[in-house]
Amino acid sequence: MIDVGDSLLAYDVAKVGLKKFPEDRTLSQKAASALINAGSPLKATQILEELVAVGDRDVEAHSLLASAYKDLWQYASDPESKQRYADLAIARYKEGFSTTSFDAFKQSRVKDVGTEYYPCINVAFMYLLSGDAEEARSYSTRALEICRNLKLNSLGDYWSQATTG
Known about the structure:
- It comes from marine metagenome.
- Pfam families: TPR-S.
- This is MalT-like TPR region domain-containing protein.
- InterPro entries: TPR-like_helical_dom_sf, TPR-S.
- This protein has eight helices and no strands.
- With 165 residues, it is mainly alpha-helical.
- It has two domains: 1-56, no CATH class; 57-165, Serine Threonine Protein Phosphatase 5, Tetratricopeptide repeat, CATH 1.25.40.
- The protein is globular and about 45 Å long.
- The two termini are 31 Å apart.
């Protein structure tokens, strides 16, 4: 349903499913994703922070949570809130990226550690928007290296090519 643009309906369906299967982390992530797509990132952060608090340490959970914080950063009007949400987005993207390197990755549904450039490039993006060009450059260089390795191994896709650009 999210794919066809009815995010609120997708959230409602996920919410019903979560009443029957409250421990289903994929369903919780889908509910949060639907909320983000519907323009409700604050509610999505509540769902995702709960997931992370009970041990959901995969790259998808952290990246989705970071995306919600990035949206909140975008919506914030005062500098203090913008900085707080930027810091939260950076922290969660970094945690998502680190799951691709440590034991928590084993719990992830992602199949190949070497393909997880998207949390890395998003850390770079948030650092750039926060005014830290040095950190932005460092993370963008890492993301570029991952994407180049994907291309060398014929694993690149549209998004990895766009990231390289």
